[in-house]
Amino acid sequence: MLFSDVIGQQAVKQHLTDLVANNRLSHALLFLGKEGSGALPLAVAFAQYLVSLPQQVAAEPVADLFGGFTPLPTDNDVPAFIHPNDIAAQPAYTRAAALQHPDLHFSFPVVSKKTGEQPVSNDYIADFRNFFQQFPYGNAYDWLQSINAENKQGNITGRECDEISRKLSLKAYESRYKVLVLWMPEYLGNMGNKLLKLIEEPPPNTIFLLVAENEEQILLTIRSRCQLIKVPALHPQEVADALVQRNQTAPELARQIANICEGNYREALQQIAHAGDDWLALVRDCLNASLRQGPAAEVKWVDEMNKLGREKQKQFLQFFNHLLAQSLRLRVLGEAAVPMADAERELAHRMHKMIGFYQLQAIVEELDKAAYYVERNANSKMLFHALSIKMRHIVHQKQFITAI
């Protein structure tokens, strides 16, 4: 993967290029970016670039016949700096692109195949290569489901930390650097303390690239030893362009999806995959059941939501939030400033009439909480029934219920 294969992030790409060009590359970088921003593909592309750089031959002086020393000429075939855009021409890049370079190592959350064992990333490396080639913008949930984790919790084990130390103690095989990409250090837990000495004082020419979504869940002792590389959310136009060019999505649909997903390309692909789902009808049913039709309609709507998978439930909540945001924009900015499909505009206007500003804010908070608990496998019937009751209280009784 080249930098050009990574969507957007031009400022970050330039910063990484400058670090190498000016010989200011830290031994440990923490790529911090929310889901769908491209932190993982960006880190992998950078790792592939680093291990594709050829070793530089140093000029070692040798003794001459008269007791003096004559330096050997440097290898003029190895340039001092190779730009990331030109790295594909290097012989090592083919193996790096396939994630099979001997100096490129990976560590990521895994699950036990047998009760009581401590798995390591190498047990799943072939699966990870296939996953990354197909879903470079996937998240940890996508990865764990691809290896049939089901409800098992992913983990980076103490044995994995020992394996990392063993791998990086070896000399670089053919590249200028040995590189470890550690995806989701949030899964390390206290076992991460095993890596502190290695990260602080690594072997020569060893680079750690940590890729995380939540800075607060990483051990402070690890965070403090890394140079932070912030990967911002993508611009909606970048997401729309990527959908059109890479996914052959119709431009109008790509624009609508990009506005909903707010810079999350992974979520945009999920939305495209379920573009046939009628989220508008579900939102309309939710509002009617909660605010007008009563308990029987609520139960029917909750049953419909319960039949959806976790990913679809999250998409529904995200779309609902998007409509509420559009309703607020219509109220503040006016019709001309808010491009929307006719059906969405009609429903946004209806919400504008029945929901005040403070009620809208409270409902958004409840939708965010519901999405949080969906990710943590909450009972969906209880969750969506509680959500409908809270919405009724917020709108009709003007009460902001915050406990879930």
Strand order of the largest sheet: 4-5-6-1-7
- CATH architecture designation of the largest domain: 3-Layer(aba) Sandwich
The biggest beta sheet reads: 5 strands, parallel
The number of helices is: 17
| SSE pattern | HEHEEHEHHHEHEHEHHHHHHHHH
What gap, in angstroms, lies between the N and C termini?
43 Å
Rg: 26 Å
| Helicity, as a percent range | 40-55%
Structural class by sheet pairing and helices: alpha/beta
CATH topology of the largest domain: Rossmann fold
Superfamily at the CATH H level of the largest domain? Answer: P-loop containing nucleotide triphosphate hydrolases
Write down the overall mean pLDDT.
81
Label the overall shape.
Answer: globular
How much of the sequence lies in strands comes to 5-15%
| Tally of individual domains | 2
- Low-pLDDT segments, ≥5 res: 57-62, 72-76, 399-404
CATH class of the largest domain, please?
Answer: Alpha Beta
